[in-house]
Structure to design on (261 residues):
């Protein structure tokens, strides 16, 4: 698990049930051994005996020194919050401190660790499936390789991350950022360039046209239809597909680091 690519874009084949976990500054890979526990959090300060296996938010006092535990029990991994603030999972699920163990599904799961103020720290988890594991390189759901059409240019990725940041944060009932607002954010991130709503629309439409012939592929990958009245809008469908196939992943939010608030 070296390098800067996200876990969702592929990990080396391993034994089914193997857990890959990564934060911004650390990574671990562990075999599925009954009773084995992987602890994550800010780590020790001056206290002796407070240690973790995966460091998360080491400079953020809002993250507990030991914030969460991943334990292999009864043939599967479970997640438990042992910290002082909530853990946030996809689809708006919150694990409050002291909550019961939550089973971890095979495949990719992002976990957001709440820190100080509005800060959140991403922990990427990937449990190797019993079927064909991910191969190196870009991959979609269930380890199927993504067609070349999914390859995004730097400009396209930046525009789509700005537009779809709520999807990447796995907020409940997400909406795309309006084009005009997305252009304002892009002007902050790229101050030497001219950005307008039409520039955003042109790049989004280019990606949509390129993926237009992949309807059958997307139908095979989609686990369930997106809920809500906005599921029929083109931008919602596009962003949902890009996130579902891991063409866009939560670590891409680092592209927004230049925007405050």
């Amino acid at each position: 698990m070296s390098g800067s690519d996200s876990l969702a874009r592929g990990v080396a084949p391993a034994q089914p049930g193997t857990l890959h976990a990564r934060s911004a500054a650390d990574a671990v890979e562990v075999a599925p051994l009954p009773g084995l526990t992987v602890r994550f959090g800010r780590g020790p300060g001056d206290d002796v005996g407070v240690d973790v296996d995966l460091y998360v938010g080491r400079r953020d006092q809002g993250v507990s020194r030991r914030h969460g535990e991943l334990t292999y029990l009864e043939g599967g991994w479970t997640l438990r919050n042992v910290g002082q603030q909530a853990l946030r999972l996809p689809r708006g699920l919150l694990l409050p401190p002291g909550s019961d163990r939550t089973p971890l599904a095979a495949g990719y799961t992002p976990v957001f660790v709440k820190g100080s103020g509005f800060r959140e720290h991403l922990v990427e988890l990937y449990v190797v499936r019993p079927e064909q594991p991910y191969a190196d390189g870009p991959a979609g759901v269930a380890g199927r390789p993504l067609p070349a059409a999914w390859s995004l240019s730097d400009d396209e990725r930046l525009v789509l991350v700005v537009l779809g940041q709520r999807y990447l944060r796995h907020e409940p009932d997400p909406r795309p950022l309006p084009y005009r607002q997305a252009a304002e954010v892009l002007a902050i991130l790229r101050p030497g360039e001219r950005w307008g709503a039409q520039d955003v629309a042109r790049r989004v439409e280019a990606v949509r046209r390129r993926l237009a012939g992949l309807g059958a592929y997307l139908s095979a990958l989609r686990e369930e239809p997106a809920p809500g009245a906005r599921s029929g809008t083109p931008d919602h469908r596009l962003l949902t597909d890009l996130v579902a196939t891991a063409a866009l992943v939560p670590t891409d939010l680092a592209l927004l680091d230049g925007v405050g608030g």
Q: What stands out?
A: Residues 197-210 form the longest helix (14 residues).
